[in-house]
Amino acid sequence: MAPLPAALWLILATLLLRLALGWALGLGIDESYMVAAGREWRLGYFDHPPLAWWLTWGAEQVFGAGASPVLLRLPFILLFAVSTWLLIRLTTRIFDARAAFWAAVLFNLAPVFGVASGGWVLAEYHVAEAPPARCGELPRQRRHQRRFAAAPYGQITDDNGGDARRPAPYVPPPPLRHLAGQRP
Questions:
Q1: Residue 23 has pLDDT above 90, yes or no
Q2: Max alpha carbon distance in the chain (Å)?
Q3: Nearest CA to 47 among 152, 110, 156, 122?
Q4: Exposure of 80 by Cβ count < 10 A (0-12 exposed, 13-18 middle, 19+ buried)?
Q5: Which residues contact 127 (CB under 8 A, 6 or more apart)?
Q6: What is the pTM of this model?
Q7: CA gyration radius for the chain?
Q8: pLDDT of residue 12
Q9: What is the per-residue pLDDT for 122?
Q10: Confidence category of residue 46, pLDDT binned at 50, 70, 90
């Protein structure tokens, strides 16, 4: 089977496995805390960024108070499937489809990502979501690295002809550039 269709089958299989585990297991201690604390919508919560609580609050609004654990875990499970897809796209752009498939396999087998972030109601789910979500940044950096490697020894320059060994100024990622007053 070709690597890209195999990766899509991997996403589907792991999604179904997470749904089955979410249905079979009750909420853990940390998950119960998240559900209880997230029953009231607030701009901020005590010890974590609020997005995880907002997802839990939204799941309770859609499925009703006292929804089954699998329904409360559903936003996290779906977001992890999206993260796996973004990781596959990113790895395919940088390397190839075969590398993307194996990156997705390892991503799903890693206990912290594949089990905790991928299927539980936890505030740490963003650990799995954030890196693949910037999938437009790394290929551009890799292109620059190839240009640096092709330069003659002792002549390392950046895009503007400057010395690449000096720290570059911060450039906001594409979605934030218009907020900083820069054109995309």
A1: yes
A2: 65
A3: 122
A4: buried
A5: 112, 113, 117
A6: 0.68
A7: 20
A8: 95
A9: 83
A10: confident
CA distance 118 to 173: 25
Q: How confident is the model at residue 161 (pLDDT cuts 50, 70, 90)?
A: very low
Residues 6+ apart with CB under 8 A from 167: none
**Could you say which DSSP state residue 163 is in?**
B
Q: What is the pLDDT of residue 129?
A: 58
Q: Which 8-state DSSP code applies to residue 95?
A: S
| DSSP character at residue 25 | S
Residues with Cβ within 8 Å of 156's Cβ and at least 6 positions away in sequence, in order, are: 148, 163, 164, 165
Query: Which stretches within the chain are classed as H helix?
Result: 3-24, 29-37, 51-63, 69-94, 97-109, 118-119, 126-133, 137-150, 174-177
Residue 175, both tokens:
């979605």
Q: For residue 156, list its beta bridge partners.
A: none
pLDDT band at 65 (very low <50, low <70, confident <90, very high): confident
Tokens of 172: 């906001």
